Amino acid sequence: MTRASKNTKPAAIELEEDLDDVMPELVEEEDVIVLSEDNNTISEDGEEEEEEEDLKLAPDSTVEVPKKKINEKINEEDYRKKEKAELLAVLDRCGKLGGPNFDADQERVLRELTKQKETIKRLLDEMRESKKRQKTYNIQTIFKRKQKSK
Fold this sequence. Notes:
Layout: H1 3-7, H2 19-22, E1 34-35, E2 42-43, H3 67-97, H4 102-149
Antiparallel strand pairs: 1-2
Keywords: Coiled coil
Region (Disordered): 37-57
Coiled coil: 106-140
């Protein structure tokens, strides 16, 4: 498309016929909706609808409680029971740690953690050295390439 064709707009077409005459089955009459002031009900035909003012349950009627609320209460109780059981299990394990070999176990765990700390520190140092060597190698390689290109 050229620039001139983009800027041109099609001419407006005027219809002389009335749309009701062309397709009368598509034209619907509008319903009148009236809001009454005394009891706030809507009526499509303009007449007021009366609401029942007193809604009382008969003495022998039953009210259904939604099941969702009951399930939520059961789930909450189950959660509390599980939480309590887990807490009791943790306390039981703590009580076992306080036994006759507590000091020996504590020293053994401390030695193991110290070994792990030293291993991690050594690995980090090796990684840093490796990065330094790699950077040095990369810099030397770049420098050599620049020297060759001159």
